[in-house]
Design brief:
About 50% of the residues lie in helices and about 15% in strands. Strand 1, helix 1 and strand 2 form a beta-alpha-beta unit. The structure holds zinc ion.
């Protein structure tokens, strides 16, 4: 892998059976931060997302809403795109799997490749199915006759389906994961997957009857009585968005790329760590190089979903606090890979004391001093301790991004903010300005601070892009006072 080899990065494509909630915002913002970081490092990146339209959940949600699945996924799909825009997430591509003309041909091509390898076969199957997971559960996974994740009763199903020969790829998948050729972060999740494989991988169903799918989805090639199963269809989005099996994008950003990263929630880890590599190995395609698994946002310890969605509507939070304050809260105050409780009071405190109080105040102080004393910024004789902190923080941000611990990156950047604020207090530029013999010291002091602020802007750019741009604008062409970066919030 070289610095200039192409890079593929995706956030998962969510079910669109309801409006997006804050959990979706978290994944979008995390993956956007990774994308912006890689772009800023000069990588040729292709960053994608989309919506998983062809799931049975969408069919049921449409029936409940008295509409068609097509109408439902179009309406909610637009909501997910709006959310990405509201959060200033810059995808290179976004695929709606029901309506995008690239998707079905890619799914069919992938199916054919696996079929040619002898990995697709038909058999009768009887099992207990969780619609929440869109997945048959193993005996050992069932708790009190229910799915442990969705805690809903399971459906007993008995039908003839097409199967994928996952068992054949058990050892290659295990080797890819244990060797980190397919890296799984955090490492606890890798251990979880390795342990699961030790229990044996069984073949899985990749189709269902047209009747059960209510005719919604992509037909099995050569078997119109069957619809391609959700996961085979959904996982293929990572290829269809690149124009697979044709097209330069697919060759550039998948087959010949240096990195292929998927950002996903822990609930869909097994599908990405087992099914997806199995399908790719069968089709003779490159495996992902990294699965970055985030935690859930909880409210009083419970996963945020539809029922709690209104309470933590991401659009409301953006309107109230601004996009960067929400991005900051999600990235800095929620653990990247563990579950964290959402607390609006903490978002408010983060806004007031960290963003406005520390970062906004630093910018305002420095610009005011430069303006008042008409200081000409220089690049020599800068404070060594601030340069050292900057270099240490840069290294820490790189480590945090590579280890998918984005909260550590933000903590480190705010250590630089704190160091700069302490430096202002310690070097007391207002006192230097009063003593005629300290003119050079004053210039060097304020130049050191402007230099630190530029570094802060550069480091913040992947995480809080708007704030970074605003800091840069305030320092150019020479530092000047402007409106507060984070104005006071209206009273609650
Ligand atoms: Zn389930």
């Amino acid at each position: 892998m070289t610095l200039h080899s192409p890079f593929f990065l995706s956030s998962a494509i969510p079910y669109v059976n309801a409006e997006p909630h804050l959990g979706h915002a978290l994944e979008l913002v995390q993956s956007d931060a990774l994308a912006r970081y890689q772009r800023a490092s000069g990588r040729d990146l292709y960053f994608t997302s989309g919506t998983d339209d062809n799931s049975l959940k969408n069919v049921r949600a449409a029936a409940l809403a008295g509409t068609t699945p097509g109408e439902l996924v179009a309406r909610h799909g637009a909501g997910f795109r709006r959310l990405a825009q509201a959060l200033q997430v810059e995808h290179d591509d976004f695929i709606h799997t029901a309506s995008d003309a690239r998707h079905a041909p890619a799914v069919h091509a992938l199916w054919q490749r696996c079929a040619e390898r002898g990995d697709v076969y038909k058999k009768s199957y009887r099992g207990l199915y969780c619609v929440g997971c869109e997945h048959f559960l193993r005996e050992s996974e069932i708790v009190d006759d229910r799915c442990p994740v969705h805690r809903e009763p399971l459906e007993a199903l008995d039908e003839e389906n097409w199967f994928f020969r996952l068992s054949r790829y058990e050892q290659p998948i295990l080797r890819a994961i244990t060797s980190d050729q397919l890296q799984i972060l955090p490492v606890e999740r890798k251990h979880e997957v390795v342990q699961f494989i030790a229990g044996g991988l069984t073949d899985f169903s990749i189709s269902r009857s047209v009747a059960r799918a209510k005719g919604w989805g992509i037909s099995v090639p050569g078997d119109p009585s069957q619809i391609i199963y959700v996961w085979f269809d959904a996982l293929a989005n990572y290829l269809s968005v690149l124009g697979y099996p044709h097209g330069d994008s697919y060759r550039r950003y998948w087959q010949r790329s240096g990195e292929r990263w998927h950002v996903i929630g822990k609930d869909i880890l097994r599908f990405h760590a087992l099914y997806w590599p199995g399908i790719l190995l069968s089709a003779g395609l490159a495996l992902p190089t990294s699965l970055r698994v985030h935690g859930f946002i909880t409210s009083d310890g419970k996963k945020i979903g539809k029922s709690l969605g209104n309470a933590v509507d991401p659009f409301r939070l953006v309107a109230r606090y601004g996009v960067d304050a929400l991005r900051y809260y999600l990235l800095a105050h929620l653990h990247t890979s563990k579950d964290s409780d959402f607390r609006e009071a903490l978002l408010r405190t983060a806004y007031t004391s960290e963003l406005a109080g520390k970062l906004g105040n630093l910018l305002q102080r420095v610009c005011a001093l430069v303006e008042r004393h008409d200081v000409r910024i220089v690049t020599t004789g800068l404070d060594a301790s601030l340069s050292e902190v900057t270099a240490r923080v840069e290294a820490e941000v790189a480590r945090a991004v590579s280890e998918f611990a984005l909260h550590d990156a933000l903590t480190a950047i705010f250590e630089l903010v704190a160091a700069a604020n302490r430096y202002v207090d310690r070097s007391a530029p207002w006192a230097l300005a009063r003593s005629p013999g300290q003119a050079v010291a004053l210039v060097q002091c304020l130049s050191s601070l402007v230099h630190a602020l530029r570094a802060i802007a550069r480091l913040l750019a992947p995480f809080l892009p708007g704030t970074a741009r605003e800091i840069e604008a305030r320092l150019s062409p020479r530092p000047h006072v402007g409106a507060p970066l984070f104005p006071s919030l209206p009273r609650e």
